[in-house]
Amino acid sequence: MIDALPGDIFHRGQILNNTYEIEGVLGRGGTGEVYRARNLISGRVVAIKALNAQFSGQEGYIELMRREEQMRDIRDDAVVRYTECSRSDQGHVFLVMDYIAGPSIADEMLRRRLEPRELMIIAHRVAEGLVAAHKQGIVHRDLSPDNVILRDGSPEKATIIDFGIAKDTGAGARTIVGNDFAGKYEYAAPEQMEGKAEPRSDLYALGALLLAAWKGQVPFAGMTPGEMIRRKQEKLDTAGVPEPMKGLIDWLSEPALAHRAPSAQAVVDQVGKALKGPAPDRATRAAPPTRTPTRREMAAPAKRRGGGFALLLLLVLLAAGGGGAWYLGLLDGVKERVLALFKEPLPVVSPYAMAATAGGGLAIPRLTANAPDAETAAAIRLGFATLAGTEAEKDAVTLADGMPTEGWAKGAAAVFAAAKGLEGWRIEITDTAAGVSGIAPGRAEAEAIRAALDGWAAAHGFTLKTDIVAGPKVLEAAAVQKVLDSLASCGPLAQLDPPSGGYALGAMIVVTGDALESDLGDAIIAALEPVIGDRKVQVALNVLNEHLCTVRGELPPLPSNALSIWMGQGATGEANLTGVYRTGDNPVVDVLIPANITGGQLWVMAVDSSGKVFNVLPNVNYEENDITKLGVVEGGTRRVRVAYSLDEKRAEPKRLAMKIEDTDYGKSEFIAFLTLGDLFDTRRPRDESVASFAEALAAAQAERPGNVLGFASRILESRP
């Protein structure tokens, strides 16, 4: 722990939510501070990350609570476990996670130079953690030496920490607590400089981390933004790094996504193989066992005696100038037997085996197999070339002594045809046990390939295990959007920041939008199922009534321009984070505008669940809507109240105030527009029909393009 400072968020001995007692400060960073604490109920030591004030606002808090649920689903020993997201009595958002005792890689870099094998073990462990995180749709985005802890000082127990700026893969550049670039420039992937983090961005960071740990120094990222961007397009300098770590770092840190390691699982597989050590030399592998000849063998059977006679005859003929007999075919069959006596004996293998891979990341397509004869060897090579699209290496198939299991020779050659259509495949056969994995173009194709492989296994007597993933390997966002457009019922349905390069296998597709029907989510999932392959769909729809849908259909496709709508309780002044009010509640509503916006007009209306639109600002009672003349400025924000507490209305009867009655149940919506000039030609009435307002809004946008600078909206839901 480090020394406490007067400005720390929490202090030693402070108890949070009657549960966690602060024991000291572990560290400070850009987004907050990390504390060691003890759960007074269980006695368990935990780490608590408290967010700075600017990240503890209401919107960031809601977003954090939602996505923290995803982080809690990451269950892997290589990833720190999140257990709670809460808010202190003083309003600071904090995350509770496991306390990991041990030095960080950054600490070890200051103390010593990590050995290559240690770093390979760390790479394998961290990649396993990333597999678990990416399966939940979470990208870390800040993987660096200080965010990997060696539990108890052991590389085998490396643990990824600090997912505080993590994001889900369907959310583009959005972080949990903000929209800015997150991470450290030295370890950030090139695409992160453009705010486009995705799972392979973590792999780049892992490569940069390994290089930094080997060299004992942080990579130089550049002095200016332009230099940083340029350097990110260049490969990392791995000169002097020993193999296989050099190859791993080069693979992980490729600037181009297409050439980078495709997934954390691929890294786990490749590093796992490297850690097992190099395979034995082929000549060593092929050497026959040493044994003493039996008496029967020493007795020289007739076949062996015949071979000796052929050699003697050949020598005599050659000595006598009888070489012509050879070419005349007079000694057919003798040549082969004689030459065989000088050949190295074939290796004795048991059981026969074959392994073939393609599309696995680091390596080109590979084949390794045994064959009892040249015909089988040729058939295996042909099957491999047909599926892989390239010839196998010359020594890929080894002729071997002994007889394989019945059906093995034909089966080994035929499996490639049964696997036709797979991408990124792996085929392994050992004796009668076979395993086939790969990517099929789609779910229908995956089922067809599984059926073909089952038929192959039954026909040739193999026990088969398959792992066929339904593709496509990359799913274009346009294919998803086409389905969504056909199902929209309340304005457009959208994908939450789809990756520009398409969705990778296992990715989460997040669909957002408004819906008129509550069962639209099920319909979306069913419609996408034939298209997405082995990917997940998360549907986050806002079910609205027909009146809100009518108005939503005319809202402009513009950003909020930093406008937001705050809701609270009139009786207490406390914020209402959910927008849900109960019978008897008195909602208050403020429009928040950055104080640095010094020009424009504010227009606010409320769309009622009954089918009316109330023009809140301006209206007949309050005609002023120049933002410079509205509200009060506090802490860099202009706060304009548009729905008042009951006490405020008593003081000024012209003010709008609401009290939830049993006739008000349902959803309403407050909408705020920031405009250059008048939104409408004339002052709108205090209230009007939804149809009338929607028509006027459509006409206003057509007549004054560019007049609307931004808008914000928020649902107010009343319940019993």
Number of DSSP-assigned strands = 31
Global shape: globular
CATH topology of the largest domain: Transferase(Phosphotransferase), domain 1
State the end-to-end CA separation. 50 Å
Number of helices: 20
Relevant CATH superfamily of the largest domain:
Transferase(Phosphotransferase) domain 1
**Strand residue content:** 15-25%
Whole-angstrom Rg: 35 Å
Largest sheet: 6 strands, antiparallel
Instruction: Report strand order across the widest sheet.
Output: 1-2-3-4-6-5
Under the CATH scheme, which class of the largest domain?
Mainly Alpha
Instruction: Tell me the helix content.
Output: 25-40%
What is the subunit arrangement here?
A: single chain
Give the mean pLDDT: 82
